[in-house]
Design a protein that fits this description.
The chain is α/β, with parallel strands linked by helices. The protein has one domain: NAD(P)-binding Rossmann-like Domain (Rossmann fold). 43% of the residues lie in helices and 15% in strands. The chain has helices spanning 17-28, 40-48, 67-78, 106-134, 155-175, 193-197, 203-213, 222-233; strands at residues 8-12, 32-37, 56-61, 85-88, 137-142, 180-187, 243-247. It has a seven-stranded parallel sheet with strand order 3-2-1-4-5-6-7, sandwiched between helices. Helix 1 packs across helix 8 (222-233). The termini are far apart. Bound molecules: nicotinamide-adenine-dinucleotide.
Length: 259
């Protein structure tokens, strides 16, 4: 099922956290992965794994909130001959952005929306013409359970993730007839830098809060998101499009998790 030999995959925010897990899993499955990130040190670390994996990892140091960067990234990846899978994974939730709307700085709103949502639009805008040319493609958007049911004080993040789910459905409607499938994954709490920032990097505090929030009784790991992303990107999921999958240890099954 997970043979991506010869396929070209782009992962935004691919050097750390969930993106790192996705980058590594695709390269383990034989893909040529273009891992786009702004953390050059993390990019060098994951790029160095390339030699020992069946596929390859090319680190591209680029801010995917910028249109010219997205166009250049797709152009670099498509020089391999195709762009088979695009994973719009990048996302930020700065610690100083836990504020209600009337206290929310406009520039913080713009940055979160640009990185979390506009990058998905831009990457799709440039990758889809390649997919149309080749007659196939898969886009997987990493949204969040917070795009479905949120918590207090995260208006920009929640709006960006709700937007990502809507964008997923819209792209699926517009491109399904061209054999381009578009799906979203909504992670619960996953043990990454982004989640750790919210608890001042106290791993135990994060794990015990996540254990309480998730019916499964523990936090998730990046590899558990990556496994679902690979499934959705594979031909095994050939009749799935326009759908989101909660990978959240049962959090959404509770109906309300944040309080
Ligand atoms: N960790 C969680 O609990 C959780 C839960 C739900 C959804 N998510 C979503 O999963 C995705 C990945 O999150 P994560 O937890 O792995 O975060 P992370 O902070 O661990 O990793 C994000 C990566 O994106 C990179 N990045 C940030 N801004 C960038 C930009 N402008 N251009 C390119 N790269 C950039 C960072 O350098 C980092 O390597 C995000 O969309 C996030 O919203 C995470």
């Amino acid at each position: 099922m997970n043979d991506f030999s010869g396929k070209t995959v782009i992962v935004t925010g691919g050097a750390k956290g969930i993106g790192e897990g996705v980058t590594r899993a695709f390269a383990q499955a034989g893909a040529n992965v273009f891992c786009a990130d702004v953390d050059a040190a993390a990019g060098a670390r994951i790029g160095a794994e390339s030699a020992s994996l069946p596929g390859s990892i090319t680190y591209v140091d680029t801010d995917v909130a910028d249109a010219a960067n997205c166009e250049a990234l797709v152009s670099q990846a498509s020089a391999t001959g195709s762009v088979d899978v695009l994973v719009n994974n990048v996302g930020i939730q700065p610690v100083d952005s836990y504020l209600p709307v009337h206290e929310f700085p406009e520039e913080t709103w713009d940055r979160i929306l640009d990185v979390n949502l506009k990058s998905g639009f831009l990457m799709s805008k440039y990758a889809i013409p390649e997919m149309l040319k080749q007659g196939s493609g898969v886009i997987v958007n990493i949204a969040s359970v917070q795009g479905r049911q949120s918590m207090k004080g995260v208006p920009a993040y929640a709006a960006s993730k709700g937007g990502m789910i809507s964008l997923t459905q819209q792209l699926a409607m517009d491109y399904s007839e061209h054999n381009i499938r578009v799906l979203a994954v909504n992670p619960g709490t996953i043990e990454t830098h982004l989640a750790l920032e919210s608890v001042n990097h106290d791993v135990e505090a994060l794990r015990s809060a996540a254990a309480a929030d998730h019916p499964i009784g523990r936090i998730g790991q990046p590899e558990e998101i990556a496994a679902v992303v690979l499934f959705l990107s594979s031909d095994e999921a050939s009749f799935m499009t326009g759908e989101y999958v909660n990978v959240d240890g049962g959090m959404m099954a509770k109906g309300s998790w944040a309080e």
